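Hi F.,

I've been meaning to write this up properly since the lab meeting, where we talked about keeping a consistent format for the predictions we share between groups. The idea is simple: the sequence comes first, exactly as it goes in, then the structure tokens exactly as they come out, then a line or two of notes. No screenshots and no reformatting. I'm using this chain as the first example so we have something concrete to point to.
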Amino acid sequence: MTLIVSLLLPLLALWLWWPVQSLGRRQRRWHLGITLALALLGVGLATLWRMDVLAYAVEAWIQLAFGWVLAMFVMLFAYLVLREAGWLLSRLAPRTSALATPWHGARTNQAAAAAIVLLATLGIWNGLKPPQVQERDLVVPGLPDELDGLRMAVLADLHASPVKRTWRTRRIVDAVMTARPDLIVLPGDMVDGEVEDTAAFVAPLAELAAPHGVWVAPGNHEYYHGYRRWMAHFRGLGLGVLENQTARLDIHGRTLAVSGVGDLAALRPSAYMRGGLAPDLPAVIAAGKGSDAHILLAHQPKQAREAAATGAFDLQVSGHTHGGHMLGFDRWVVAPANHGYVRGAYRVGGMTLFVSSGAGQWDGFTVRLGVPSSIDVLVLRSGNTNGR
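Output, unedited:
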């Protein structure tokens, strides 16, 4: 998919400058040449990375550079669609030539190209900088009054890698611990790279601690990089790994079940899979039976409809979407690919779904514009109904 997308980039470069009639022959060559060079850089980076012949520490930086190019061309595509729509509407209006000409004018398109480069660069910077804590109340109907006010930190999509190094993870861990949560959950995609490539960059996770535990569920990126070894490594860090398993917690005389399930990626195996297990909702439903409240950690929010239909869960916590990365891109691309769920709280049947914007994102598309990364601290509220 990455290679297919990258092969479309030169077509966008041609589309940008071909209709611009006010450029001289030499100017046209320069404008086309520079934009095509960026497009071909994207193709080259994607090819080099997919050849899988370099050390992952190098590949991660190649992915970051590819993501910068891809972000520019995503924004370029949006601009070109708007440009041509504006041009067509102008052609229908009186004084056609006066209104239509600026859309394909050199200055308009030069300014747009410069803005796109700056926005993509800013987006990468926003994606790499450490996230801030975002605290919010979250109503979970059916939550017992004894659990009202429980503080749960959500640390999703950390995507630790040779690009996002130990200092960033430490900043995140320090921020989580300063928030003093009662419970910490990590719903998948903690790492990119094999254990030997990335273990040093997740070492600070061993310092996470909360009165009711630190619980991890797998995400699809763990499946790409040696799943079994990573699960064993997380256990070695003292994290509670839930692989289609349930932890039953006694809190103020009530039982809170916290379950973690495998990721949906296991249902569509690919050549890039390196282990992993399919989600097993019946197993965690049986393990959580009789609890006063049940929280499901499922990496992809697409699992919410199936989970809600069982009637067994009060709250599902997910990540995966990175909040949609960019305004516009979030609603038009990411949300439709995830059953309409992109970030924040939703009601799905009788269940509450919370989708975190994530504390990081994959190096291959790190850009964030208008959708900051976050460490979520959810203060659970009971709503109007007590118990089960």
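Notes:
The mean pLDDT is 92.
DSSP finds twelve helices and twelve strands in the chain.

If this format works for you, I'll send the rest the same way.

G.
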